[in-house]
Design goal:
Helix content is 40%, strand content 11%. It is of the alpha/beta class. Helix 3 packs across helix 5. This is DUF488 domain-containing protein.
């Protein structure tokens, strides 16, 4: 059976209201957002295993000057998490997805990096994955070794 075409991955702050176009709303932070209930968030799932490690999150501290290094390190964590990525793929195969995050910075947060990782992995295709390509090793990703 052919896989359904993948939908664009949307991003949204958890403090913004849910909208019909959000599709499946997935929380991708490691810490539950303050003052919010599951019902208020209207989430399909909390994919805590895809959040950056606590140590990486603390090191980054949402400092835009550390963004490129954060992305590279987070990509390594994601590449080492096939089970978490497989779970996310099941949602992506079902239809539109919105990744929810709590950070104030809409350009430098783990949801942005996770979306970037997924987009790079899609471009590498099955051949790239079989050859050991990860977003960290793909051309155009800053911070490559």
């Amino acid at each position: 059976m052919a896989r359904a075409a993948r939908q664009p991955i949307r991003l949204k702050r958890v403090y913004d209201p849910a909208e019909p176009g959000d599709g499946q709303r997935l929380l991708v932070d490691g810490v539950w957002p303050r003052g919010k209930t599951k019902q208020e968030l209207a989430i399909e799932a909390w994919l805590r295993s895809l959040a950056p490690s606590a140590g990486l999150r603390r090191w980054f501290g949402h400092d835009p000057a550390r963004w490129e290094d954060f992305r590279a390190r987070y990509f390594e964590e994601l590449a080492a998490n096939p089970d978490g990525l497989a779970r996310l793929r099941t949602y992506l195969d079902r239809g539109p997805v919105t990744l929810l995050y709590a950070a104030r910075d809409e350009e430098h947060n783990n949801a942005v990096a996770l979306r970037d990782f997924l987009m790079l992995a899609r471009r590498s295709g099955p051949a790239g994955r079989q050859a050991g390509a990860t977003p960290r090793t793909l051309p155009g990703v800053r911070g490559n070794a």
